[in-house]
Amino acid sequence: MILEILPQHLFSMPNVNALLRHQNTTIMHKILHQNLLDKEMYLSSVALLYIIKGEQSIGIYDAERVQVEQGQLLYLPKDIYLVSDFIKQNDSFEAVLFFIDDDMLDKLRPLKIEKPEIQTHRHKPLILSTNQQMAKYVGSLIDVYAGQENNPQLLEIKLLELLALVKFQHDGDDFLDEFYSRSLMPKKRDIREFMHQHYLQNLKIEDYAHLTGRSVSTFNREFKAFYEATPHQWLIEQRLVKAHEMLSEGKANVTQTALAVGYDNVSHFISAYKKKYKQTPKQTKIGK
């Protein structure tokens, strides 16, 4: 399964409507009429999620799984891998999503007077219970902008309004402090740290370049300087080493191992594995 990069992937989804958009900053309205389970995603922008109906269960790789319910606002930082369950209430799940890219974050920065410090717990889930005023604001976005021509000039205004409303919620000041503290991260990420954290994800080289804040050509050049190999060569090597470890320890069968190390085609995995280890994955698993 190809990992979905958000918000980019959502722009082509029939059940998601972009109310306002400028590049990768957007306000989206999402409706599901069936439960959607174990959805794997990667966030390339900061996100705020407001649940209108139903609930969403979110698992983040280095934090506890959390439940987000109707009327709650969830903050998610950029550059995280997560797995979500979308659970409908009665006939549907409904939410409004706010994705904010780095350029827009810089414009919104004046709302935070003191310079924020980066927190070490930046991936910890952050949830704010909101009042009826927030519900009316979210509802007005749908009423006014759904089905209308995109007006990007209004996007910054509506995001400023959102953050102003957050400030007047109970514990809103603390939520905003954390929002800025966790969001204002360096734009260019360390390639080695990022690759060692995410080499098992089924991402394209273009995705790795984008998520580390580089063009493809710059990413390839810097990567080769670090590893003396191309990204493609390095990824194959690291994934096969991990697969060999899993099979030798009997942790999974061949198909499960292939999927776990980023292969969605088991035949391709077997071929690559046999080329490196001179035996099939099955032979490794049974100890031959």
UniProtKB/TrEMBL annotation:
<dbReference type="InterPro" id="IPR009057">
    <property type="entry name" value="Homeodomain-like_sf"/>
</dbReference>
<dbReference type="InterPro" id="IPR050204">
    <property type="entry name" value="AraC_XylS_family_regulators"/>
</dbReference>
<dbReference type="Pfam" id="PF22200">
    <property type="entry name" value="ExsA_N"/>
</dbReference>
<feature type="domain" description="HTH araC/xylS-type">
    <location>
        <begin position="189"/>
        <end position="287"/>
    </location>
</feature>
<keyword id="KW-0804">Transcription</keyword>
<protein>
    <submittedName>
        <fullName>AraC family transcriptional regulator</fullName>
    </submittedName>
</protein>
<dbReference type="InterPro" id="IPR018062">
    <property type="entry name" value="HTH_AraC-typ_CS"/>
</dbReference>
<keyword id="KW-0238">DNA-binding</keyword>
<dbReference type="GO" id="GO:0043565">
    <property type="term" value="F:sequence-specific DNA binding"/>
</dbReference>
<keyword id="KW-0805">Transcription regulation</keyword>
<dbReference type="InterPro" id="IPR018060">
    <property type="entry name" value="HTH_AraC"/>
</dbReference>
<dbReference type="InterPro" id="IPR054015">
    <property type="entry name" value="ExsA-like_N"/>
</dbReference>
<dbReference type="GO" id="GO:0003700">
    <property type="term" value="F:DNA-binding transcription factor activity"/>
</dbReference>
<dbReference type="Pfam" id="PF12833">
    <property type="entry name" value="HTH_18"/>
</dbReference>
